[in-house]
Specification:
Layout lengths: L2 H41 L24 H19 L4 H10 L5 H54 L7
Helix pairs in contact: 1-4, 2-4, 3-4
């Protein structure tokens, strides 16, 4: 075997070993991240109402919020409720209105508190949904890296002796 082919085989084999080691770590981190999200959502004990949901959320009726998709759906439910409660105004818009009126309108102050709490919970649920997607990405990349690492090690073995035989 010529020296260039041997160096190529060693380099490909070492990259394959590195990817083959990184892939399972990513798979495990993706799974543990998903389990952590499930546990944190379950600890909040959020449950969809059994009735009265909009048609696009009907499949969640009566169910717990324990997954990313359920967190997203509940965030949408909160969005709908907030829009009804605030007349479509955001926390910032209500705050501006409150300040413009001198800041002593108790009803508007309570509405601002409702908007703040709803938008905060909605943001937290959307963060869980985004984290759910990241665990999917990490798990998928872990699987791809594992496969690529194995393919590179097979390629290196086909080109010549593997690095562990040197």
């Amino acid at each position: 075997m010529n020296a260039a082919r041997r160096r190529t085989s060693i380099l490909i084999g070492m990259v394959g070993i590195a990817l083959g080691a990184a892939g399972p770590v990513m798979l495990l981190r993706g799974r543990s991240g998903r389990q952590e999200i499930r546990a944190e959502l379950a600890a909040q004990k959020i449950t969809f109402p059994g009735t009265g949901l909009p048609a696009h959320l009907a499949r969640f009726a009566g169910g717990p919020v324990e997954t990313g998709p359920a967190a997203h759906a509940y965030a949408e439910l909160i969005k709908d409720h907030l829009a009804k409660a605030t007349g479509g105004r955001t926390y910032a818009e209500i705050t501006e209105e409150l300040h413009a009126g001198g800041g002593d309108d108790e009803k508007l102050a309570q509405l601002r508190q409702t908007a703040f709490m709803g938008e905060t919970l909605r943001g937290s649920l959307l963060s869980a949904y985004q984290a759910w997607h990241l665990t999917t990405l990490v798990t998928g990349l872990g699987g791809a890296l594992t496969g690529l690492g194995a393919a590179l090690m097979a390629t290196a073995n086909a080109l010549g002796p593997s690095p562990r035989h040197l």
